User: Fold this.
Amino acid sequence: MKKNANRLLVIDDEAEICNLFSSVAEQLGFEVRTTGEADEFISLNRDFNPTVVILDLHMPQADGVEVLRRLADDKCRAGILVVSGADSRVLGSAERLGANRGLNMLGAMQKPVQLQELRGKLGDAKLAQRKFTPADLEQAIAKEQLLVLFLPKVAVHDNGGWSVEGSEALVRWDHPELGILMPDEFIPMAEDTGLIKPLTGFVLNETVEQLRRWHDLGLDLNVAVNVAAQLLEDLEFPDQVSKVLAQHDVEGSKLILEITESAAMGDRQTSMDVLTRLRLKGIELAIDDFGTGYSSLRQLFYMPFSELKIDASFVLEVAESNEARTMVETMVTLAHNLGMSACCEGVETQEIWDFVASINCDKVQGFLISRPIDSDSLVKLVREWQDAGSTRKIFDVASGKRSRSVAMTE
Ligand code: C2E
Ligand code: MG
Ligand code: MG
Assistant:
């Protein structure tokens, strides 16, 4: 696969800091390299060609100011963030030094670095280097530069075991110069310009085509497609979806449409009409990122959803926070009491999975099970799970005690 469009190179002699920066940056879609040595850093800068550099000014074996000079000699075009435990005046003068040498300085952060600040600076860096226009995105859709990956979803059985029931389609833009772009970099533009309609049409078609293929391979899988709420204001949308299903001879019940709650409230009459007709065609509807918007309860009350997806921001916290556990458990109960299934997003650790299983969550997705993968890898993963005994137990049913599950990672 091509290089990620967002590449971060970190030089810091403390391995823990490198790991922390990596995990924050990876969550934001960066590919990351780290090192504690100046020479390795300079060669990585040439080979890896980062879009953002984080440089610790204070390292026992390397002088940060000298590294800045070497980056300037190399005509480095990455955005540069300097960090140091030194006082802010030292940081400020290092920043000016870099800028005077023609480097693209993004700012300075004092150690200990606040994660919120780091997230903000990396997010700004991503947006600052966005170099495409709506016309480019339109071309990309027409020229099929978009690709669809699949995030596996596992569901629990009555006996407490789990199996892969399907996946969620997630779009990427394989940009000819910038590399792979993540949805948060271009979906907002697509929504603002009306391009979300052809984009969703493309994703839907690719996805339903894969559904047909999986079915032909003997795999009974479903798939979810993300739908921006503004498409629910288009009365023709249900017929367009039916047409794609008919073209590939796929049943509506294999398709789930995920709608993000905060925006779904535009014109309630029209959205109700569209959602009800989709349901009548047998298509499942999920409310996505539940708990993050303001209209969640009203929507649940009015709209014919069949699945509630609990946002990763709650799920990721359950190991540390009592409040998060209460929130997640309450949302699962709410889904069940309304006759819906509950799916937890962001299951990154076994501890999280054990907890959500213990509160009877029906479905889970997350990096512990798999990252988003292509269709062939999904087929492989489904077969591996089948070969491992069709289901993976998280509970020892006979004794009622919890046993370790054998979740598979990539
Ligand atoms: P989403 O629908 O909530 O999708 C889940 C996102 O969480 C995906 O990010 C996925 O890679 C990520 N994720 C999965 N497991 C974990 C985990 O264990 N930990 C963490 N930290 N993250 C996890 P991705 O692919 O970057 O997509 C972001 C959002 O972009 C999606 O959120 C969805 O709202 C939107 N999106 C993606 N594809 C499409 C599309 O085709 N159409 C529309 N309208 N929106 C899309
Ligand atoms: Mg989704
Ligand atoms: Mg979600």
Summary: Residues 393-410 have pLDDT under 50 and may be disordered.
